[in-house]
Structure formats: C-alpha cells, structure tokens
C-alpha cells in the first residue's frame, strides 16, 4: 500500500487533493523523469512513492521552495523550531509581525502561517466552531507529517526557476511534465497572480517540447482556445473555500495533454 497516499505537508490554494485519483491513471508508466513546474503543495507528487527515476519539484514562490528544502535537509531543526507554535490567535499575529534571520526560521514561520490560517492563505487566523481539522489540526500529526515528507523528498530535486527555463532544462523524449499553473480566474497567492501569469507563453513553451505533458486548468473559453489543438478532457471537483454555497459546489476543470489521455 502506498504509504504516501494520504500524506501531504501543507494545504495550498489550487491544490489537487480532490483530482489526484483522476490524474493518476493519465500519467504514463514508461517515463524516465517526472517534473512539476508549478509544484505548489506537491499533492500529486506525494500521491505515489515514486513516479520516475528522476523527480523534480519546482515553484517560483521561494517561500515554498525554502520550506521543502528545509524539510528535505533539516527536518529535525524544523521540528524543534515548530514544536511549540500552537494554535493561538495571539501567536499567529506575532508570527505575522516577526522577523526571521535564518532559512529554518523562515520555513517555520511560513509553515505555521499556512497551517493555522483561514483557507491556507497565511493572512488571517483560522478557527472552527463545531469540529476539528481545518485550521486546527493536531500538532502531533503536523510534526509526523514533516518526517514523512522528508523521506519522500529524499531523491527529489528542488528548483526555484521560471517555468520556461525549467522545462527547457529537463526536457527529453521520456520526460513527463505535470503542470498546474495559475488559472485564468480565481484566487491565488501574491507570487502566482492570475492577472500577471503569461498563459500564452506557457502554451508556446509546451507545444514545442520533446516529452509529454499533462496540464490542469480552469474550464474557460480562453483555455479552450489556447489548447484547441491538444487532447482535452473535462473534470470536476468540489469547490474549496466556497463549497458551502450551493451555487459554487462544483468547480469545472480541464485536463490537457500532448498525448492520448482519452
């Protein structure tokens, strides 16, 4: 049984927790390298013990990259730093205003703000009225997660590059790129603004690669037009933060590839 199946380090806006079972069978089994140009929370990467001989996690957000590098190389130090950062509105506000002097401190602060915030945005303290989980997960479970993901990252390369530079760097005939870029609409983080992202540049980059790619996107007229020459299937998932609103329960997405995904 895959010991990583239910493992993850952080929740992340746009994370693929609810689509992993749909994405999994679409990823070819004969690949030699597995690359995520937009790694985010790593939900698809962590879905299996190993996707390929070479695995690459990349994100332009250096807060994410620093966190995963610290989890990979210095998990014990991160655990020591994080151990007593309990769920507290006062501690959360102090963390927001704190100054960090080391990469381990930066990783711990970022990890804490994401884990204890509303919607995993890292901006406002999250609390629940009737049940656990959400912004009040078990502190012990969080610490155990660090060790689990530390082992999973053992041979994973961690990069902090622009997607085009990364794709050109790792492209070859048996490379596979799982791409989960910022969508054309919706919420995101400061480093992944939907307004600033160059969707056309990503399309132009992917259409010329030697390897294969699977791309997850919002089902929008713009995306359908950009990728009209590629394989495309529809998918849907429960909406995240807005899932309680009957009008927003289902979010429609597209899975797009340059190989037979149908």
Q: Can you summarize this structure?
A:
The protein is an alpha/beta fold and 262 residues long. The protein has nine helices and seven strands; from the N terminus they run αββαααααβαβαβαββ. The protein has a seven-stranded mixed β-sheet with strand order 3-2-1-4-5-7-6, with helices on both faces.
Rg result: 18 Å
CATH homologous superfamily descriptor of the largest domain: Vaccinia Virus protein VP39
CATH topology of the largest domain: Rossmann fold
Q: What is the top-level CATH class of the largest domain?
A: Alpha Beta
Task: Describe the protein in words.
The structure is a single chain. The protein is an alpha/beta fold. The chain folds into 2 domains: 1-60 and 162-262, Vaccinia Virus protein VP39 (Rossmann fold, 3-Layer(aba) Sandwich); 62-160, Adenine-specific Methyltransferase, domain 2, CATH 1.10.1020.10. Helix content is 31%, strand content 16%. The protein contains 9 helices and 7 strands; from the N terminus they run αββαααααβαβαβαββ. Strands 3-2-1-4-5-7-6 form a 7-stranded mixed sheet, with helices on both faces. Strand 4 (175-179), helix 8 and strand 5 form a beta-alpha-beta unit. Helix 2 (62-73) packs across helix 6 (139-152). The model has no long low-confidence stretch (mean pLDDT 85).
